[in-house]
Amino acid sequence: MKKAYEPSDEVNYYLEFYNAMQDSFDEPTNRKALAWICEKCGYGTQHYVQIVTHTDPKTIERGRKELHGEIPTPEQGRQRLKGSGRKTVIDHHPEILDDLHMIIDDYTYGNPMNPLSWTTLSESKISEKFMEEYQISVSPSEVGILLEKEGYSRQNNKKMLQAGKPHPNRDEQFQTINETVKEFLDAGDPVISVDTKKKENLGNFKNNGTEYRPAHDPRLVLDHDFLDKELGKVNPYGVYLLNNNSGFVNLGTDHDTSDFAIESIRRWWQIVGKPTFPNAKRLYINCDGGGSNGSRCRLWKEDLAKLAEETGLEIWVSHFPPGTSKWNKVEHRLFCYITRNWEGKPLYDIETAVELIGSTTTKTGLKVKCVVDDQEYPIGKKVSDEEMSKIDITYFGSETHWNYIIKGFKSE
Question: Do 27 and 174 lie in a common domain?
């Protein structure tokens, strides 16, 4: 009959020493220490060590191989080899951050010029939507990690402050925009979000934000922001294409008028739109309700009719309700990143502005094209009732003054 293993005093001595030192061991040292005890004390020791220390035999075997250099040992200070451990959900699904934005896009709150946002969807609900819409299994805790990675934060309050009384039909208009955007995207037709960024002074003026520079060597700028008449100002008119996360900026040097707004869209179509959508028959524009592309602006509509005649496009337009411009995609998909890219850097001249705008990129693949528009755009142009009556315009949605389709001009 096989004699039962009896631990020697030597084994117990080493194990006692191991127990005293165990808390100071990292994982690799722990494995190699147990393997060394087993080899030092000979046959039958490993099974006893496994029972006493509650260690898996695979752990001791790996420690043995590390002792003899048969497999690599993690670098000092590391618990595991580089690249080891469980792969993250991003490793398995590189596109998951884009999917996350698609899920929470309609439920996102926060100042779009601020990197911190929040969503009304719970982590569990987002987890469910990943499975429903993309057949991707993502746990609620993993959703939390993804949200934090993208700059989202837990917030107690979910209501937003809005200047003035919210328009009673605001939600209906949002629904119209969302449904029409999805229809266009599903059909492969272009959808653009447009607006004019605030005017910027050219010259050695302070630009909010910070930048990395040598210690104690701040960039010196003028102490007053008086306009440099020789350099002037620039009006960045942005066009953000929802279909492929690309931006276009027409950098005007004159007035921000409807003529300038339509010229910006015209240039986008010639440089980006037509090459990207050679067979497109229609274009959907999302814009604010005021300014050079305002819902009540007659010149905007007349210029759209001219653009429709030139391009052969059926141009659909939806305006955001008053006080909701922060939902306009161009604000938090394009302009906020341009602002971050040039923060702390004076716009010395128009070439500097073009370079900084054109070099704006994001982790999600945003690319921006910037061109200079030095044409003059006189203010005060009027469109008569007779001229308005010639525009071929139809309406859609519940708020017809905010949603319309322009096909050109009516035939005589």
Answer: no
Long-range contacts of 309-312 (CB under 8 A, 24+ apart): 309/408, 309/409, 310/266, 311/269, 311/274, 311/283, 312/281
Residue ending a domain, choose from 114, 149, 184: 149
Are 391 and 299 spatial neighbours (Cβ–Cβ below 8 Å)? no
Same domain membership, residue 343 and residue 208: yes
- So what's the pLDDT on residue 223? 46
Range of the domain at 229: 170-409
With respect to residue 345, please indicate whether it lies within any of the assigned structural domains.
yes
User: Do 43 and 16 contact (CB within 8 A), yes or no?
Assistant: no
CA 358 remoteness from chain centre: 17
Q: Tell me, what's the pLDDT at 116?
A: 44
45, 37 in Cβ contact below 8 A?
Answer: yes
Pairing of β 314-319 and β 246-252: unpaired
Tell me the residue ranges of DSSP E strands in 288-400.
314-319, 367-373, 391-395
Q: DSSP states of 154-196 as a string? A: --S------SSPPPTTHHHHHHHHHHHHHHHHHHT--EEEEEE
Instruction: Give the whole-angstrom CA distance, residue 138 versus residue 136.
Output: 6
Number of domains in the chain: 3
pLDDT value, residue 396: 93
Residue 159 lies in a domain: no
User: Which of 43, 62, 85 represents a domain boundary (last residue)?
Assistant: 85
**363 and 400 both lie in a single domain:** yes
Written as six digits, the tokens of 265 are: 């869209």
Q: What is the pLDDT of residues 304-342, one digit of tens each?
A: 999 999 999 999 999 998 877 777 889 888 988 888 876
Examine the domain organization and report whether 234 and 320 are in the same domain. Answer: yes
pLDDT at 276: 96
What's this model's pTM, rounded to 2 decimal places?
A: 0.60
- The count of residues in the chain is 412
| Bridging pattern class, strands 191-196 and 282-287 | parallel
- 225 with 313, same domain? yes
The contacts found for 241-244 with CB under 8 angstroms, 24 or more apart, are 241/190, 241/191, 241/192, 241/272, 241/273, 241/276, 242/181, 242/185, 242/191, 242/192, 242/193, 242/329, 243/185, 243/188, 243/190, 243/191, 243/276, 244/276
Using CB atoms within 10 Å of the CB of residue 43, give its burial: 0 to 12 exposed, 13 to 18 middle, 19+ buried. exposed
Q: Quick one: the chain helix, strand, coil %, rounded to 5?
A: 40, 15, 45
Task: Based on the fold, state whether residues 22 and 119 are members of the same structural domain.
Answer: no
